[in-house]
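Please go through this protein, sequence plus structure tokens, and consider how the sequence yields the tokens. Keep your notes short.
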Amino acid sequence: MVDYRSVSQVKELDDCGYRYYLHREATDEDGNRLWERPAAWLPQGLGVHEAAEAWEKSGRTMTLEEAQKIFGESYDAHTNRLLETTPNLDFWFRSGPYGGDQDIPRRYEIGMEQTARYVRYYTEKHPEEKPLRLSEDEFAVEWPFEVKFGDVPVRGVIDFVLEDGKPRDNKTGNRPGDPFQLGTYAGVIEQLLDVKPTTGDFWMGKSGKPTIPIDLTDWTQQRLADVFGDADERIRNQQFDPDPDPDKCRFCPMAHACEYSVG
């Protein structure tokens, strides 16, 4: 069995090794994975991504109402899945002053609006920004990949590759991602499409537009091999060092099971 690594694994490991362990490795006395505290922003993000994917793969012929319907169905499905494991909304993450009972309907409305912003951005503001066509019936949207950086197999999904080969990731939260994520995607594009992107960006659901371009020229194949190689070695050696910090622990879905949690 191949042990694939991913961007999210590396980021979580770097953020807090013990969180990685609790989230991805630890089990209870019955051998089950540990409970993860749910949040309404999770189905919101999934729903917007699924609506954007469906709209793009329709050749942008889908109406806004149809895209929002897909968001709503996805949001309900993912929310119900979380409710099955955690029906008590007091145990859900709060979002500022909003508890789970308030945040679930609130996030539905936010996701509906972000879906609308996505469609309007690409139809009204910048219709020239189109996804790369990989074949007659395939676009580089939610594009799954499997590559190797050095000796480490890596897989994941790229949200969007523009026609010039530039990677773009959709974010539904308040903050963009980091250069490592886009740098990894640039390395994937270089391997699979023989195009070396020099910049990438994040499309932000909150503002309805991309961030400024992020320089990716330093993310070489060797640098990516070093980063993923280091993470792979730490995982194989079970090196899961804790990094307790009040800001991290407050939003950690595994804090309830962590002996190092602070704040």
Summary: The longest helix spans residues 100-125. The two ends are 40 Å apart (CA to CA). The longest strand covers residues 152-161. Residues 33-128 form one domain.
